[in-house]
Design goal:
7-stranded mixed beta sheet; globular
Length: 145
């Protein structure tokens, strides 16, 4: 269902969301990305819905604990990221998505890594804020530099 919204949402749904909702969604998407890179477990626990569906770069399905553990490993750290081709799109007043391409790099278990990914995060309103409910990551070939 969520992926159908991400792919097939008519543009009119985005227009139905007030500008303040779009700004709130963008601010949340920015904070969510920053919490991942900063490995802020407490923020991620709050920002990620308990029923999160996370599809990793290999196509496997996981949940909230796996997603958060993956970003907060004691032996891992991440370099700052630059998001390319970013889209932040409200889907009515209660849902929205953020999608972008980036190079994710850093160290995992002390070893350097560098991957190119495109991600789509789907958010839904939870009280006065948002929560990530569906995340899909696609690994992409590295471009020649």
């Amino acid at each position: 269902m969520a992926i159908a919204l991400a792919i097939g949402a008519p543009p009119a749904l985005a227009a139905d969301a007030p500008a303040s909702d779009a700004a709130d969604l963008r601010a949340f998407a920015d904070a969510f990305d920053a919490a991942q890179i900063a490995q802020d477990r407490a923020a991620l626990e709050h920002m990620v819905a308990d029923d999160l569906v996370f599809i990793d770069g290999s196509g496997k399905r996981y949940g909230k604990a796996f997603f958060i553990d993956g970003w907060t490993g004691a032996d891992d750290d991440y370099d700052p990221v630059t998001l390319k081709d970013r889209v932040v799109l409200p889907i009515g007043a209660e849902a929205g998505l953020a999608s972008a391409e980036t190079i994710l790099s850093g160290r995992s278990a002390g070893k350097p890594f560098r991957v190119r990914i495109r991600f789509t995060d789907i958010f839904r309103r939870s009280g006065d804020s948002w929560q990530a409910t569906y995340i899909h990551v696609t690994r992409m070939a590295m471009e020649a530099e």
